[in-house]
């Protein structure tokens, strides 16, 4: 599941079935909007320009477009995926309108392990990861890539930014792994989580990673 060819084949097969339908890993936007939108609204209070939000490994999920269409504050949503097939489908089939006239939406073909080569350091306000890391860590050779992805996310987030990682992995395992991975970033990061509740009998969690700066390296962890 860490191979580009795997996802190209998956989305080609999905498109060949006829009518387009957004494919959601775990759950859709409505299950997480009460986490994302209040945070976006709060962050926007200290910003004069649109918040830059990256939906990393977007596939054909409606998550990014829904944030674009429902956020009352201005957002610049970038939906990125390694599969050109997924990006092409989203460009063709997404026609939603923004809630804020200053919002924008774009689709980008990009490998998540090459984020720092595309985005500058400390330039993004929020990164969303709904199933992307889970797909990698459960792949035979993907765990190293997943760690690389996490570290690059921390590097490109603003000091006030957040990486929101939605997963069904229990905190006893995921927190330790995340804390170990962010040690590879110069300033480090704070890691915390909140329970999302159950979907179809499976418990989900939102892991939050916030980059540190030299001046606040001793601040407490998120809870």
TrEMBL record:
- Coarsely, its chief localization is mitochondrion
What name has this protein been given in UniProt? Citrate synthase-lysine N-methyltransferase CSKMT, mitochondrial
What the protein does? Protein-lysine methyltransferase that selectively trimethylates citrate synthase (CS) in mitochondria. Seems to conduct trimethylation in a highly distributive manner rather than in a processive manner, and thus introduces a single methyl group per binding event.
**One GO CC term of this entry?**
mitochondrion
Keywords for this entry?
Answer: Methyltransferase, Mitochondrion, S-adenosyl-L-methionine, Transferase, Transit peptide
Gene3D superfamilies recorded for this chain? Vaccinia Virus protein VP39 (3.40.50.150)
Where in the cell? Mitochondrion
Catalytic reaction annotation: L-lysyl-[citrate synthase] + S-adenosyl-L-methionine = N(6)-methyl-L-lysyl-[citrate synthase] + S-adenosyl-L-homocysteine + H(+); N(6),N(6)-dimethyl-L-lysyl-[citrate synthase] + S-adenosyl-L-methionine = N(6),N(6),N(6)-trimethyl-L-lysyl-[citrate synthase] + S-adenosyl-L-homocysteine + H(+); N(6)-methyl-L-lysyl-[citrate synthase] + S-adenosyl-L-methionine = N(6),N(6)-dimethyl-L-lysyl-[citrate synthase] + S-adenosyl-L-homocysteine + H(+)
Indicate yes or no for the key word Ribonucleoprotein: no
Q: Which family does it belong to?
A: Belongs to the methyltransferase superfamily.
Q: Which SUPFAM superfamilies match?
A: S-adenosyl-L-methionine-dependent methyltransferases
* GO terms for MF: methyltransferase activity
Which segments constitute the Methyltransferase type domain? 54-163
Fetch the PANTHER family from UniProt.
CITRATE SYNTHASE-LYSINE N-METHYLTRANSFERASE CSKMT, MITOCHONDRIAL, SAM-DEPENDENT METHYLTRANSFERASE SUPERFAMILY PROTEIN
Which CDD domains does the annotation name? AdoMet_MTases (cd02440)
Q: Which GO terms describe its biological process?
A: methylation
């Amino acid at each position: 599941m860490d191979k580009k060819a795997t996802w190209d084949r998956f989305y080609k097969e999905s498109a060949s079935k006829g009518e387009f339908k957004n494919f959601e890993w775990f759950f859709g936007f409505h299950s997480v909007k009460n986490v994302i939108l209040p945070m976006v609204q709060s962050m926007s209070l200290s910003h004069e320009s649109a918040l830059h939000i990256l939906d990393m490994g977007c596939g054909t999920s409606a998550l990014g477009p829904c944030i674009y269409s429902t956020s009352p504050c201005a957002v610049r949503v970038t939906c990125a995926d390694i599969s050109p097939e997924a990006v092409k489908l989203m460009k063709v089939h997404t026609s939603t309108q923004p809630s804020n006239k200053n919002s924008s939406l774009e689709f980008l073909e990009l490998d998540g392990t090459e984020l720092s080569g595309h985005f500058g350091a400390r330039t993004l306000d929020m990164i969303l990861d709904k199933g992307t890391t889970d797909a990698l860590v459960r792949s035979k050779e993907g765990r190293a890539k997943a760690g690389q992805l996490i570290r690059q996310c921390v590097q490109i987030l603003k000091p006030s930014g957040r990486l929101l990682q939605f997963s069904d992995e229990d905190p006893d395992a995921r927190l330790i792994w995340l804390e170990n991975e962010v040690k590879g970033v110069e300033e480090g990061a704070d890691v915390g989580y909140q329970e999302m509740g159950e979907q179809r009998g499976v418990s989900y969690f939102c892991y939050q990673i916030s980059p540190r700066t030299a001046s606040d390296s001793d601040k407490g962890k998120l809870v």
